[in-house]
Each structure stands twice: as structure tokens, then as C-alpha cells.
Amino acid sequence: MEEDPEIATTQEVDHNNDGNGEAEDSNGVSGYSAARERERSVPVIITDPDVLDCCICYEPLSVPVFQCENGHVACSSCCARLRNKCPMCLMPIGYNRCRAMEKLLESIKISCLNAKYGCKEVFSYSMKSDHAKECVYIPILCPHTDCDFVASSKELSLHVSHRHVGSGVQFTYDKFITVFLNTDQKEIVLQEQNDAHLFIVHNKLELLGNTVHISCIGPKSMAGFHYDILARSRGSTLILQSVTKIIQAIGHASSSVFLLIPSKFFGCGQLKLDIRIKPQH
């Protein structure tokens, strides 16, 4: 008669019984190992962190790490890009692994540079660049003039809601709002009523008129938002449909996509814009 696999599994687990009717904790060994690892860990201060970066691209090294005969180290991407020739001494590189450096990289754990803004992540040094691209706690400067407040996007949204009440325009996703823009006004701050995300309407005076586009303030990993800008004047309508660029400061807001609005659209030096913003689905 074929053995019931469920009963067999139970019998195998019973083999770990300590004789007192209690099975050994399956996490006991792993828990002990983790404790031992913590006991063996040693705090280290690296006075020159650049020694852990690729000497060619200056990005943090990650396994595999290669070295030439003279000891210069490089990442695998640079070895391939330079056709396995060391740029320092022109010796072959990309064939011999630097095991000592690899073990060092795997053993070093660092805290996120954004720890002061709320990030609690600890990771291997080789993951430094990847984490920086994804970290939601990247510091962002308040978009309001003469305000030097810097915080994560979440804290910044709260700051704007409480400290700059009435200084921006409230809106709801997927609904048109009307804003008025002066010819020389550089930006308007928008804030969504439900999730408090911040957006900037950028305006720049050019020879042929004004260029207008919208960006979103947030971490680099954040997805952009669809937006529409409509400018009307005397029966004519100009329309831009695009996706917001994600920025961390007003100075990062340059864009190759914008709506060029001729000067004649600005009646009495002011322009009326109809704007709609909606998340990507």
C-alpha cells in the first residue's frame, strides 16, 4: 500500500523531537547563526570610501570584481567596455577575479545616506547605487520661494499643507482646474487634495512667447503623471499632452517637452490655463 505523503512528512518532523514531546524550533539554527554573526561583526570607519568604487566609472564595485596584473581593479561592465585593457597601465584586465575585494564588499553593510530623513535600510556597499535610485526618502527642497525646508517627499507634502496654506492651488486628479499665470511668473505650486502630491507648473519667457510644462516633486523611483495643458485666446486653443518629469528641486525642472504660447495669448500680461493631471494606469 502506497504511503500517504502527509503522514510521511509528519513522521519526518517528529524525528526532530527532543524526547519531551516538543519539536525543535525550525528557526533555532538560523537564529543562532544570526546571533553569532552579530557577535562577530565589528564597526569600521572607512576614511576613503572611494577605494570601494570602480577606478574607471567611479560607481560602487559589485561582484564580480576584476584586477589586472598590477592590481588595478574594475567592475565587469568597464572591463567589457574597454575590451579588457586596463586604462591605468594598459595591461589585460577582466580575466582574474579579485576575491579579497569581493569578500570585503560582501561583508560591508552601510546605512542609507538618507537615514536622517527617515530611511532605516541597511545594505551591502555594492547595493548603494541601486538603493539610491529607489529610496523614497531622498531629500527634496521646498518649492516655495525663500523656504529652505528639506525633507522626504511625504514630510514635504505635510510641510506645504501646514506652512504654505493658500500659497498654492489645490486640485483633484482627472479633473480640469483653471490657473492664471503672469508673463514673468516662473512657477505655480499645485497640490492634490487626497494624496497631497506636489506638482509645479513651470513658465519661462522666451523670444517667441512663453514655454509651459508641468513636473512632479518626488523620489526618483516615482512614476510620472499624465497631464494636459490648454491655453485659449480669441477662439484659438493650444494643447499639450505629456507626462511629468519627477524632480527633487525646482532647479532640476528643465524639459524638452513644453507648450509654446505666443505672447498674444497673454491678455493684459496674464494667461488663463486649463490643467488636468492624472496618474498613469
What does this molecule look like?
The chain has 281 residues and is of the alpha+beta class. The protein has two domains: 50-134, 2-Layer Sandwich (Herpes Virus-1), CATH 3.30.40; 140-278, Apoptosis, Tumor Necrosis Factor Receptor Associated Protein 2, Chain A (Sandwich), CATH 2.60.210. It contains six helices and 17 strands. The protein has helices spanning 5-14, 28-40, 76-81, 99-107, 128-134, 153-163, and strands at residues 65-67, 73-75, 96-97, 109-111, 122-124, 140-141, 150-151, 169-171, 177-182, 187-192, 198-206, 209-217, 225-233, 236-243, 245-247, 259-262, 270-279. The strands form five sheets. Strands 8, 10, 11, 12, 15 and 16 form a six-stranded mixed beta sheet that branches. Strands 9-17-13-14 form a four-stranded antiparallel beta sheet, with no helix packed on it. A hairpin with a 5-residue loop joins strand 10 (187-192) and strand 11 (198-206). The two termini are 55 Å apart. The relative contact order is 0.09. The model is unreliable at 1-24 (pLDDT under 50).
Layout of strands and helices, then pairs:
Elements: H1 5-14, H2 28-40, E1 65-67, E2 73-75, H3 76-81, E3 96-97, H4 99-107, E4 109-111, E5 122-124, H5 128-134, E6 140-141, E7 150-151, H6 153-163, E8 169-171, E9 177-182, E10 187-192, E11 198-206, E12 209-217, E13 225-233, E14 236-243, E15 245-247, E16 259-262, E17 270-279
Parallel strand pairs: 8-10, 12-15
Antiparallel strand pairs: 1-2, 1-3, 4-5, 6-7, 9-17, 10-11, 11-12, 12-16, 13-14, 13-17
Pathway: Protein modification; protein ubiquitination
EC number: 2.3.2.27
Domain RING-type: 54-89
